[in-house]
Q: What sequence folds into this?
């Protein structure tokens, strides 16, 4: 069995990917400082608790577990936080990633799948965003992702390290088996915030209803987290075969507005989501939808679970069951 280091393996996408790796006959080794993840979600393979900037500990982990490759999720993800405290993002995302690359060099791991973001495109004014679009991030978060992508290209040009950057659009949903899901604190994503509002939380704030879209609310591309995890496993296989592009969009290619998402939630749950209207957030494009043709061709990847009703149903099942049970385990510990 191969061993793959998964940084951020105790997190949302990381834990789903660990499950997908295990199902593919790969041993995931999670490396996480647990600042944004939960130990209770590490159910497939061992956990090493540590800071990504601890190069020596990373290198020792790679050697100890005979790691062949790395899938790199660890980092800070909140765009608003990156504007208010950019040092947190440059420290965790850029310094942490450079530490990882050095640890890989010392430990002999050559292949890296990197968790990038559609934030590298900035505010593209097109119906579908392709990999050929100019890279013009407008937030510190997006700029850290672009910096890491550039570092990966430079390392590949000067060494045997090879990498692929997967540019996510909107990860959503939860494991269909209920074994893992979304546990962000604080939560910033639309669907879990809407479900929390249904469950007695504060009303969901809709940020702007005057965009140039059919119903005035922003349109986004949602991809089921299980499909996203599958894309990482396929990207790793492509790297090992020597036939991987430098960067790929990961999205469904279908856009849904905020109001459309709320309508589907109402259909799945049977109740209307309590909302309040807010002002637009700076930097929110009216539409952000992936041109996903390249990943379908390069990785033979097709999202199998990314219809909006399936995404919402899996997220609602996790919210009612797995999320509460897992939080109870964490609190009891």
A:
């Amino acid at each position: 069995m191969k061993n793959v280091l998964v940084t951020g393996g105790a997190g949302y996408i990381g834990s789903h990917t660990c499950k997908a790796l295990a199902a593919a006959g790969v041993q995931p080794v999670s490396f996480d400082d647990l600042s944004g993840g939960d130990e209770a979600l590490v159910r497939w393979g061992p956990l090493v608790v540590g800071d990504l900037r601890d190069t020596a500990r990373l290198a020792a982990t790679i050697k100890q577990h005979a790691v062949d490759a790395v899938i790199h999720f660890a980092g800070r993800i909140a765009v608003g936080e990156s504007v208010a405290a950019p040092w947190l993002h440059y420290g965790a995302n850029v310094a942490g990633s450079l530490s990882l690359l050095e640890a890989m060099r010392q430990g002999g791991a050559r292949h890296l799948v990197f968790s990038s973001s559609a934030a590298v495109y900035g505010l593209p004014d097109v119906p579908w965003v392709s990999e050929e679009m100019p890279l013009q991030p407008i937030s510190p978060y997006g700029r850290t992702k672009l910096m890491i992508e550039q570092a990966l290209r430079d390392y590949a040009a000067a060494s045997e390290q090879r990498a692929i950057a997967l540019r996510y659009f909107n990860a959503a949903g939860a494991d269909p088996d209920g074994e893992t899901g979304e546990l962000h604190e604080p939560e910033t994503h639309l669907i879990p915030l809407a479900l929390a509002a249904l469950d007695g939380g504060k009303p969901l704030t809709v940020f702007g209803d005057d965009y140039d879209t059919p119903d005035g609310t922003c349109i986004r591309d949602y991809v089921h987290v299980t499909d996203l995890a599958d894309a990482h496993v396929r990207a790793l296989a492509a790297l090992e075969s020597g036939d991987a592009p430098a960067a790929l969009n990961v999205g469904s290619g279908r856009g849904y507005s905020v109001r459309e998402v709320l309508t589907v939630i109402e259909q799945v749950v049977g109740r209307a989501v309590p909302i309040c209207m807010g002002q637009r957030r700076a930097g929110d494009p009216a539409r952000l939808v992936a041109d996903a043709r390249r990943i379908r061709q390069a990785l033979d990847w097709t999202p199998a679970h990314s219809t909006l009703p399936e995404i919402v149903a899996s997220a609602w099942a996790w919210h009612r069951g797995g999320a509460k049970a897992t939080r109870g385990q964490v609190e009891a510990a």
User: Anything to note?
Assistant: The longest helix spans residues 308-332. Residues 327-333 have pLDDT under 50 and may be disordered. The CA atoms of residues 170 and 222 lie 5 Å apart. The domain at 2-171+222-251+291-303 is CATH 3.40.50.720 (Rossmann fold).
